[in-house]
Every structure is written in C-alpha cells, then in structure tokens.
Amino acid sequence: MNPTQTHPAPPRPMHMLLLTLMLGVSLPALAANQAPPIPPQVDTSSLPAIGKAWDASNPLRGNAAALDIGRSAYNQSCARCHGPDADGSRAPAPDLRRIGRSCNRVADAALKQRCTEDADYYFRQSVLKGKIKLGIEHMPAWEGVLDPQVLWSIRSYVETAGKR
User: Is-annotated flag, keyword Cell membrane (predicted)?
Assistant: First the structure.
C-alpha cells in the first residue's frame, strides 16, 4: 500500500489472474459458474418457418413481424448490457447497431451481399458462442437457448434500430 493511500488499491485483472492460478481454479471454470441465459418470451408463430439450420445470412431481414419480435426479444435479453431499444451509445457492452453498418457503403451488389453475410455470421457466432476474454465471461453463450427465428429477429431489429 502506498503511504499516502488509506485503503488498498482494488485488484487489477492481472492480479486476479495470478491469484486464481495460485488457488488452482481456472478462469474458464469460474466463468462456467454463471447462470445460464434465460430465453426471451416471444411468439414466433407469425414468422415463416426456417427450421433449425443456420442460414448464411438473415432470412428474416425486412420482415415486419420479425422486427417487432426482435425488439421484444432484444429488450428482454440484450438491453441490460447493450442498451435499451438497441441504443448502445452509453451501454457497457458494444453497440450492436454497428455490426455490418459499413456494408451499406459497398456499391458492388455481390460484395455488399458478402459483407452482409459476414456481418450476419459474426453476429450469429458471437451470440451463440458468447464472449470470453482472459477466461472471464463477458457475454453468455446462447446456443441451445435461442432458436434461429429469435436470433434472426433480434438481428433484424438491431440492424434497423434508429432507422424506423
């Protein structure tokens, strides 16, 4: 402790890593102790059937019902970290509206489609696999929790939020 300090400094991430390793507990094991995510309560019966397979790009893009379902699902499951109504400008987690936004500036149709598919893939994988950095869970994995209709509805809503 610094002589001018009255309280010890809070532990730094590296200190936590070292302490965890000394105690013999792995950080992924600590992250695995998080409660599983709870699926949003939404009715997807108005959406076209898309099966359980994951499409290369969002098959619900532009579907009005998907936008409404996506908004509800997002606000139930994502807003706490990414900001209410997809306004992530002051949220602790990344602003999801930015994923693939640069694709709109691509003039060539084939390249634009590939860019959009890449953004959809990144979104899908991030949601399904979650985010773990240095063994610390920053976002839970939603694989097995969200079905394709709900995930793509959330993607549809997020990419149009602020534009409607």
Answer: no
Q: CATH number for the domain including 35?
A: 1.10.760.10
Tell me whether residue 3 is in a domain.
no
**Is 7 part of any domain?**
no
- How many whole angstroms separate alpha carbon 5 and alpha carbon 61? 55
CB 121 within 8 A of CB 99: no
As for how many domains the chain has, the answer is 1
Residue with tokens 């209709």: 149
pLDDT digits (tens, 9 = 90+) for 8-42: 555 555 554 444 444 444 444 444 455 678 899 99
What is the Cα–Cα distance from 88 to 1, expressed in whole angstroms?
37
